[in-house]
Each structure stands twice: as C-alpha cells, then as structure tokens.
Amino acid sequence: MPRHALYPGTFDPVTNGHVDIVQRCATLFDHITVAVAVNPSKTPLFPLEVRLDMLTQVFAHTPKVTVASLDGLLVDFARKHKAHALVRGLRAVSDFEYELQMALMNRRLDDSIETLFLMPSQEYTYLSSSIVKGVARAGGDVRSLVPDCVYERLEALPTS
Ligand code: ADP
Questions:
Q1: Which of 81, 44, 88 is nearest to 66 (CA)?
Q2: 25 alpha carbon – ligand 1 mean position (Å)
C-alpha cells in the first residue's frame, strides 16, 4: 500500500525551508499532500489562492506531491485523504513546545495517525516565512531563501 504523508502549514509564503522538508519527506513516502491551512486565526499576507498557486508552481515537476487547501480539523482531512502520517518541520528548540502540543492533541483526536518531525538542512534552521516577509518588505534580498515564483511576488510588494 502506498505510504501517504500530509504536510500541513500556512505557507505564507513557501520558503526553501519548506521545500527542504518536502524533499526529505519524498525519500520516505510514496505520496505527499502539502495542505495549505485557511487559518482564520492568522491574517496571511498572501490570500489562500496565491499560496496554493505558488506551491503548485514549486512542485509542478514533483509527481509525488499534491497541493490542497485545508479547512477544519487536520485529523479529519488526514482520514479523508487516507494519510498515514502528519509531517512537520522542526527548526530550533523554540518550535518544540507548540509542535509537541499539536502532535499530542492530534493523537488524542485520532490515535491512528502519527506525527513525524523532520529537521531541515542547517542553512534553513533560522528561516521562517515571517522573517522572509519582514526582510523583503524592508527592501532586503531574499532571493536565495525562497523559490523564484515567491521571490517575484515578494519583489512586487510595496516596500515599507
Ligand atoms: P504554521 O503551520 O505553524 O503556520 P508554516 O506554514 O510556516 O507554519 O510551516 C509549516 C511547517 O513547516 C511547520 O511544521 C514549521 O515548523 C515548518 N517550517 C517552517 N519553516 C521551516 C524551515 N525553515 N525549516 C524546516 N521546517 C520549517
């Protein structure tokens, strides 16, 4: 049976750190769904459609990867899509507390779906969507930190 992983997140926008996690995941699973959270509790810079569009472009040549939007409970989505595992990225210790809380809550909601944590390449350990947006808004160069299609979108933003 093909092994299917779900990689959920806000991806506002997708960075090279996220891409690194998907690539690592692709060595372990037959299929990966990158699930883009609608996330009403956050106010994303990029609307859902744009976040989906950027991810679709980034993984256009990676047949193992599907991009989908995610609303409602993650475990419901995982069950519906017959995912075997949830994948999250762990950067620094600061990620750990929140990620542990989420993983244990998801386990409580559905004990059959495991959460796996993958560490990115060291160069992406301090990379986040927020820092990329902050630097880009201030006119800094983020070309080496994000895929080209994201870089173009960030370049088109007004600088503050
Ligand atoms: P969230 O889902 O918490 O809103 P993101 O959309 O930014 O956050 O990230 C989705 C997942 O990818 C999270 O597990 C996050 O820890 C992970 N992640 C974000 N940036 C990186 C990075 N540079 N390297 C590895 N994992 C990352």
A1: 81
A2: 14
- Look up the pTM and report it: 0.95
Nearest residue by C-alpha to atom 22 in ligand 1? 17
Distant-in-sequence, close-in-space partners of 54: CB < 8 Å, separation ≥ 6: 11, 13, 14, 46, 147, 149, 150, 153
| Helix/strand/coil for 12 | coil
CB 18 near ligand 1, within 6 Å: yes
Per-residue pLDDT of the chain (160 residues; tens, 9 = 90+): 889 999 999 999 999 999 999 999 999 999 999 999 997 677 899 999 999 999 999 999 999 999 999 999 999 999 999 999 999 999 988 889 999 999 999 999 999 999 999 999 999 999 999 999 999 999 999 999 999 999 999 999 877 6
Alpha carbon nearest to ligand 1 atom 4, residue: 10
Domains and CATH numbers, the chain: 4-155 (3.40.50.620)
Helix (H, G, I), strand (E, B) or coil at 145: coil
Cβ–ligand 1 distance for 17 under 6 Å, the answer yes
Cite the active site residues. 18, 42, 91, 129
Q: Whose CA is nearest to atom 24 of ligand 1?
A: 17
